[in-house]
Amino acid sequence: MPNNKMELNLHPDVALGEYSNLALITHSKNEFILDFAAALPGIPKPEVVSRVIMIPEHAKRLAQALIENLRKYESQYGPINLDGQVDDKTINPFGPKGLS
Q: How far is CA 86 from each of CA 20, 75, 76, 94, 95, rounded to the nearest angstrom?
């Protein structure tokens, strides 16, 4: 069985990360575009802090990996409670409407 471990180079500027409490997801036939933004008090318009573009197959793998990691998280720390439902037009996994 092949070793599935991958070594990544993590540049110090990227390692700091970006805070996001809003994610907007759009797609075309060929790619998914994930815009991560920060909606903060006193700022009238959320600022996009990062954009990730990927092919549909990679987007589906990302969704599966997120589901798997959410299950692991909840088995270790307990259920994540969400208020409200997902808006039909905007996926906002970090905001008040949550990911169901």
A: 17, 23, 25, 11, 10
Q: Taking residues 75-95, what's their average pLDDT?
A: 69
Closest CA to 48 of 75, 20, 72: 20
Q: Is the pLDDT of residue 70 over 90?
A: yes
CA 5 to chain centre: 22
CA distance 5 to 20: 28
pLDDT tens, 37-46?
999 999 899 9
CA 31 to chain centre: 16
Q: Residues, the chain, total? A: 100
Cβ-proximal residues to 26 (8 Å cutoff; 6+ apart), any chain: 32, 33, 35
Distance CA 97, CA 80 (A): 13
Model confidence pTM above 0.90: no
